[in-house]
Amino acid sequence: MKKNKILYSIFLVFIGVFSLWGNEGTKLLEDYKTVLMRIRYSKTSGFCHDGKTEIREEKVKASENSFFIEQRNIYLKVKNIKENKVYYTRCFELQEDNGKLAAAANYQIEPAVKITGHWNFFKIGKKLNITVCSGEKCKNTEITLYEINETPKNIKDGIFFEFDESEKKEALNFSISLNAKPMPIIDIKEEEAKMNEILRKMEKYFTAAQIKEKKDAFYKALASLK
After folding, report:
1. Strand pairing class (95-97; 137-143)
2. Rounded mean pLDDT of 102-116?
3. CA distance 147 to 3
4. CA-to-CA distance for 89 and 203, rounded, in angstroms?
5. 173 vs 88, 149, 170, 176, CA distance in Å?
6. pLDDT at 168
7. What single string gives the DSSP state of each residue in 126-164?
8. Which ranges of the chain would DSSP assign to H, the alpha helix?
9. Is 121 strand, coil or helix?
């Protein structure tokens, strides 16, 4: 009986250590992915969320096809035509994609706007208007923007958000910056220092090969910024 108690105690200690390792290892991996994303997209227009927190941004000049919603809880609805999934975004570099107007490659505006000629956009009242002209004929489409105050279920590239569809409502007031885009405010040296600290701590939980793989991915992302 005494032997069984000793074995049980050893088992509990083992489970506790394994759980602690799992929690610490998982947290370090999450921290690594967050910093890596911030570095990869630090010079990408519209990058405003690293999966954990919102990123500060500044408004800069951009092309005539660029505009973005200044409020962080107001979104344009788009559909990824490759995934056949709906996302929401604040930032757009309007372009033609497979005959339709898109916020980015593969992300077509919802409802769909067919491109048959010249197009432009403007705001009237509570609506974002897209006008497409072919010859002397013009068609205007009102695009609804949505107010969503929930935490996204999924974030893609720090720009496209997945929400519970039931949580959205039509936006009544919003500000749109034309010919402008938001750029993330990220201190690369600070992020590099964070990453080096994370990689150092990982030595306790990951193999040398695993750490090398992560370190290589980090320095590759860093080199791409130069």
Report:
1. unpaired
2. 89
3. 63
4. 38
5. 17, 14, 9, 10
6. 84
7. TEEEEEEEETTEEEEEEE-EEE--SPPSEEETTTEEE--
8. 2-40, 188-202, 208-223
9. strand
Reply yes or no on whether the pLDDT at 120 is more than 90.
no
pLDDT of residue 18: 41
> How much helix, strand and coil, in percent to the nearest 5, is found in the chain?
30, 35, 35
Instruction: Output the CA–CA distances (angstroms, integers) from residue 192 to 24, 124, 189, 202, in the order listed.
Output: 21, 45, 5, 15
Least confidently predicted of 3-17, 39-53, 104-118, 163-177: 3-17
Residue type, 69: I
- The span from the CA of 4 to the CA of 199, in Å, is 40
What are the pLDDT digits (tens) for 3-33? 555 544 454 444 444 444 568 889 999 999 9
Amino acid at 192: E
Residue 118, pLDDT > 90, answer no
The pLDDT value recorded for residue 8 is 45
C-alpha dist (Å) from residue 47 to 76, 161, 163, 205: 15, 11, 17, 31
Exposure string (b/e) for 102-119, b if CB count within 10 Å is 16 or more? bbbeebbbbeebebeeeb
In the numeric block, which tokens belong to residue 76? 């344009």
Note whether 45 and 93 are within 8 A (CB): yes
Q: Which residue has the tokens 């010249």?
A: 118
